[in-house]
Write a structure and sequence with these properties.
It is a single chain. By secondary structure, the protein is mainly beta. It is built from 1 helix and 24 strands. A 5-stranded antiparallel sheet has the order 1-2-24-23-22, with no helix packed on it.
Length: 403
């Protein structure tokens, strides 16, 4: 089996079979790193200077409960045919009549003794659970019910929701990396995996945007939204230099009317880049602007090659939001070198961004942690995020109490 993202656990016993979560060594994680001093903000005239980025390094972080796995409260193997999966990108569905948090997962395994191991490119959960202090609970999946706990092929088996469009010569995965709602329409950024390399390394064919009009039940692909990773990645499809830096995405609503999309290259070794687009033009790549930080910074339209790094790598899977408690923009990701969960904050999407601020150390939660995905219903000092653990190959809900 080749799950979505290879993270080598520290030396020790071999990882368990996917689908049998092990409780991490510590449920109360208190990184030892000293708080990072706030960085001075620029003072552009005539506007007053923005507040300095908040320091949240070392904020107490704990495991709330498992989201997936046969031994977790959702009993996902028995109820959805899911023994192992990862990522758990989570977003608000924007439906005022039935507000739900939707969660998309990457490569998914079911019963490993069944032919093909019930492998799926991706699956999706829905939850109306606002009481995150007690975990995320998923209702049963009901066939053809767009508000049930999961889109399913049949009772007890979640279906693959985003399918191949048969553009790439070789494709081993279709992995969701970010999603957002516009009204009741759902948009998902995903990457097409060409091949897996060494730990934390992989090659993509392209990234693209999928859309669902029925609360995540069914998805279609915008062919014009494909960002090929190289000139020879997809036969017959052109390559625009710079698109290789937007193979993984992280959507974020700005306070200025724009939708922002952070980008990173394939794998966990690259830097972070930034683009923005009017929300009603999200699938149209020609409408995007890219942040170039040279000589004071400017937005460059329709030229991904003009984007300069917001901060250097190694940056793993990322999520982002404006945090109303901190009054700062907030990103979470794992440092691809240390595998620690880190945060950065900034008064504006383009920065200035704080240094990395450690939240969860891989020494305190061994087994390979990655992909911290912020829950949109976090509020006040309570920051909740999904986090994947390689040794179990399942997803946990984490809680950070912000200072």
């Amino acid at each position: 089996m080749q799950p979505q993202a290879g993270v080598v656990p520290p030396p020790g016993p071999n990882p368990p079979t996917p689908g049998f979560p092990q409780t991490p060594n510590a449920t109360q994680l208190q990184p030892n790193a000293a708080p990072v001093p706030p960085q001075p903000a620029p003072q552009p005239a005539p506007q007053p200077a923005p507040p300095p980025p908040a320091s949240i390094a070392g904020a107490p972080t704990s495991l709330v409960d498992w989201v997936t796995g046969p031994n977790g409260p959702n009993k996902t193997l028995q109820r959805f045919g899911i023994s192992g999966t990862d990522l758990g990108i989570v977003w608000d569905n924007g439906d005022p009549a039935n507000r739900q948090a939707l969660m998309a997962f990457g490569d998914t395994f079911g019963y490993c003794r069944v032919r093909g191991q019930e492998w799926r490119y991706n699956v999706l959960f829905r939850s109306s659970d606002h009481d995150l202090a007690h975990g995320i609970h998923i209702a049963d999946g009901v066939p053809n019910d767009r508000y049930s706990g999961s889109p399913v092929w049949t009772n007890g088996l979640s279906k693959q929701v985003v399918n191949t469009i048969h553009k790439a010569a070789h494709e081993t995965g279709i992995i969701p990396t970010s999603a957002i709602s516009m009204g009741r329409t759902q948009y998902m950024n995903y990457m097409s995996i060409q091949r897996w390399g060494r730990d934390g390394e992989w090659t993509t064919n392209y990234s693209a945007i999928a859309r669902s009009l029925d609360n995540g039940q069914n998805w279609g692909i915008y062919p014009g939204s494909m960002r090929t990773a190289s000139a020879d990645a997809v036969p017959g499809v052109g390559f625009t230099p710079g698109n290789e830096n937007f193979q993984m995405g992280a959507f974020m609503r700005g306070n200025d009317g724009y939708l922002y999309s952070f980008g990173t290259p394939s794998g966990r070794g690259g830097a972070a880049f930034l683009s923005r687009v009017p929300p009603n033009q999200l699938p149209d790549l020609t409408k995007y602007q890219y942040w170039n930080g040279d000589n004071g910074g400017r937005w460059v339209p329709n030229n991904p090659g003009a984007a300069t790094p917001l901060w250097p790598g190694p940056v793993g899977e990322m999520s982002a939001q404006y945090n109303s408690y901190l009054k700062q923009y907030l990103v979470l990701y794992t440092n691809g070198g240390s595998n620690d969960v880190v945060a950065r904050t900034a008064p504006a999407p383009q920065g200035p961004w704080s240094p990395e601020q450690p939240l969860v150390s891989s020494f305190q939660m061994p087994g390979g942690i990655y992909a911290p995905m912020i829950h949109p219903w976090s509020s006040g000092r309570d920051l909740y995020f999904n986090l994947s653990l390689w040794s179990a190959y399942d997803v946990m809900l984490m809680h950070t109490v912000l200072p």
